[in-house]
Please model this.
Amino acid sequence: MKPKHSPARRNRTQRLGFFFLRLVAIVAVIPIIAIIAYIVYKGAPALSWEFITGFPSDGMRSGGIWPAIVGTFFLTMLCALIVAPFGIGAAVYLSEYAPDNRWTQSIRIAIINLAGIPSVVYGLFGLGLFVIFLNLGISILAGSLTLAIMTLPVIITTTEEALRAVPQSFRVVSRSVGATQWQTVRRIVLPQALPGIMTGVILGLERAAGETAPILFTAAVFFLPGLPSSVLDPTMALPYHLYVISTQVPGMSPEIQYGTALVLLIFVLGMNLVATIIRSRARARRQW
Amino acid sequence: MQVPRIKSESLITGLIKVFGYSAILFVVLIFYFLISEGFPAITEVSFSEFLKTRWYPIEDYFGILPLLVGSLVVTVGALIIAVPIGLLTAIYIAEVASPQTKEILKPLVELLGGFPSVVLGFLGLLILSQYVRQILALPTGLSALTGALLLAGIAIPSIVSISEDALDTVPKSYRDASLALGATEWQTIWWVTLPAAKSGVLTAIMLGIGRAIGETMVVLMVTGNAPMMPTGLSTLINPTRTMTATIAAEMGEVANGSTHYHVLFFIGIVLFIITLIINVFASTFVFRRKKRSERILS
Model:
């Protein structure tokens, strides 16, 4: 069969096509860099010791954001404590124990669905179960529990991937010298997969730290005169604070708004960076 | 010595199994609480009332149709922008870019995926909506279009990341065979690699839809939040209001157990079911692909 077009024309099409693809990729990526650069540029002047460690004053129009930083830190840490055993345990089950049957299939479908539920629906669920039914009230605990269930699918999926990456031969050798399945998991598989698991957990928490909708009706409040004293207290949080000062407070200075956005971005992208570093260092050191 | 070891072994195995099944438990719990808080709405407000076109809870008008349409409009708008850009970027990263460029581009796009949506909403409110207002000479820049533009930014990372993975898993032998037959790389991409990765690409698009329809903060902040029924093409440049934004904006102000409260949970059920259908669809694409590749290998 004769080719429809001459080689020269096909080459020209390809060059034009590749040029177009490159152009689209640039269009997709430039806004990302621009957004980060712009927030840093506008927010950096606001960053000062008083801004980080001070309390909001004058109806949020001046002062700092310390209670929001502390609140987001506590929400994220408590979420980690709750979700890590569930997420890692579930991943160990799926990767090391689960038989390939309908039940395991339905666990996987459940995880896919958890991952797809909108964050505001998690907020509704947290309100119904934790705040009202379990009577925890609007509190750090209720918010962290809600965030924990929301981040569970991320952590299960990434941890399972890390566990599956450990070569099968490691398990075979361990079992052949008489170790039980759990001993193999605890002494061989989990330590080998640890960097991957940590990356997954941090990426899950990154999402928890940046989300607003799940804590809207479960944990966050507009303003608190002091720091929360227990996990049953409500709290301020960075994402919610940014929402409040950009939509609910008239006459806000843009400097404080951009400063808050920058701190939130540093928080979240900092976690992303830590996860990336752990992953690449582990890859470099890996012997298999 | 043997007995306690076996005992603790079976204990730990049981515990791990419980963790494994917890995902199913949570899905059931979520569904149960949405139903138990949302179902009373059907008896308190008649079902036909829901399908009316006026949402004005203060006077007991609970027509959720404008909210449903609002969600649909911004999601479709977002997809019209995000699918071509996302897919072409994925093709560029997977098939054309040099390894070094790939190393930079992919993490950068995934970085956008990790952006807190409230930050995007904030920038949309302060900057993007101003441009939209000036360029289109509108009375307000808080419109469905502004929401769709930002939602596209939220959907693109999912679409790029998952499509790129799908393109990446197409065996090299497919491409080699195509090139050996005299096809150019450009032809190979469109006639061989992309069709082979079709199911993964479809999954990526479905998950992009799921992210866009479920996103809350961005649409709450930039779409103007006016529950209006569409009136032709101008819908796109008018303010609109989505289901997610309605829940987020109003749940804080309603009394627990009131009709309004139940109706907001009912909207939650609608959202839950929509995303459930999207995700089941997306995952059947994945499962089907697996089965086909198993067939080829066996």
